[in-house]
Amino acid sequence: MFLNIQSTKTLTNGIEMPRFGLGVYKMTERDETLQAIDKALKVGYRAIDTASLYGNEVEVGEAIRYSGIKREDIFVTTKVWNTDQGYDATLRAFEVSLKKLNMDYLDLYLTHWAVPETFEETYRAIERLYDEKLIRVTGVSNHHEHHLQKLLSKANIAPMVNQVELHPYLQQEALKAFCAEYGIAVTAWSPLGRGGVLDNPTILEIAQEIGKTAAQVVLRWHLQKDTLIIPKSVTASRIEENAQIYDFELTQAQMDQMTTLNRDHRFGQDPDNFKFNF
Question: What is the mean pLDDT of residues 135-160?
C-alpha cells in the first residue's frame, strides 16, 4: 500500500481521516504549542488531536487559523473529559470546546474514558452532535471490547473511531480485530509507548538495518498494521523526524519480529480501572 503524510483512511460514513497527525497532550505552554502546531502543519501534518483536559484548545484553533490552510483541509479531534460526561453535560462541554477552538464544527469528538455510569449517555450525546452536523465523525477513546458492545447494542450510529493505547508492547490484536469487524478505525494515542519501547534491542536492530531511528521504525510498523497514529512532540526536529516514514517499508520478516514484542504492558491506565486525581 502506497502511503504519504497526507494518506487517509476511509471511515464507515465515507469521511477521509488522516492516518497520521499531531497529538498535543501536555502542550501547556502557549508559544511552544503554537510553534509545534505551526511546524507540524508546515511539514504536512493534516490532523491535530486535542482534548478539553489538555487545556490548549484555544491555541489549537489559533494555530490552525494562523497557518492559512483551509479549515476543511485539517482534521480536528477533541474529547469530552470524565467529569463532563452524561447526555446534557456532554452537549454543554462540546459547546465550550467549540467556542475555545473558535470553529463552526469539529471533525471528530470522543468520549475520553469509558466512565462506567455515564459513557453510554455520553455517546448518545455524540450521536446527536453528529445528527446535527456539528461533528463529521463519531468516536470514543479508551474503550475495551465490552464497552463497545454496550454502545453497539443501543447505538443508531456505531462509533467510527476508537483511540487507545497501542504500541509494540501493547498490540491489542483482539480489540483491533473486533473493531475491524464493526468498521471502527483504531488510533494509537501512545504509538511510541511514551518512549518506553525505543530502547528495545529488536527495534534498534531493525532501525540499524534500514538506516532509520527506532521511533521511525515503530511509527512505520503502525501504518503497515492499519493503525492511525498521533505522535506527540514539541521539538521541531522530532516533529519532522516522525513524519519521515514514507520513504521505506518494513519487510514481512521485520513485521513478524515486531509481533513478538507484545507484552500486554501498559504505560497508561487500564480503561477498566482508571483513576485521575486532579
Answer: 98
Domains of the chain: 16-198+229-234 (3.20.20.100)
Structural contact between residues 78 and 54, judged by C-beta atoms closer than 8 angstroms: no
Which one is catalytic: 45, 54, 123, 130? 54
Please state, in angstroms and rounded to a whole number, the distance separating the CA atoms of residues 130 and 138. 7
Closest Cα partner for 278 from 32, 55, 60? 55
pTM across the whole model: 0.97
The reply to whether 54 belongs to the active site is yes
Please enumerate in sequence order all residues whose Cβ is within 8 A of that of 14, keeping only pairs 6 or more positions apart, or say none: none
Contact 64, 38 (CB under 8 A): no
- Is a pLDDT exceeding 90 seen at residue 278? no
- What single-letter amino acid sits at 55? G
As a whole number of angstroms, the distance between CA 46 and CA 44 comes to: 6
What angle, 0 to 180 degrees and rounded to 10, lies between the N-to-C axes of helices 252-259 and 201-210? Answer: 160
Q: Is 147 annotated as a binding residue?
A: no
Q: Torsions phi, psi of 22, nearest 5? A: -110, 125
Mean pLDDT score of the chain: 97
With beta carbons less than 8 A apart as the criterion, state whether 119 and 84 touch. Answer: no
Calpha distance 191→21 (Å, rounded): 11
135: enclosing H helix or E strand: strand 135-141
At 239 the three-state DSSP class reads: helix
The pLDDT > 90 percentage for the chain reads 98
Which DSSP string corresponds to 29-73? Answer: SHHHHHHHHHHHHHHT--EEE--GGGT-HHHHHHHHHHH---GGG
Helix (H) or strand (E) run with residue 151 in it: helix 145-154
Q: Yes or no: say if 266 and 170 are a contact pair by the CB < 8 Å rule.
A: yes
On the question of pLDDT at 1 being above 80, the answer is no
| Helix, strand, coil tally for the chain in percent (to 5) | 45, 15, 40
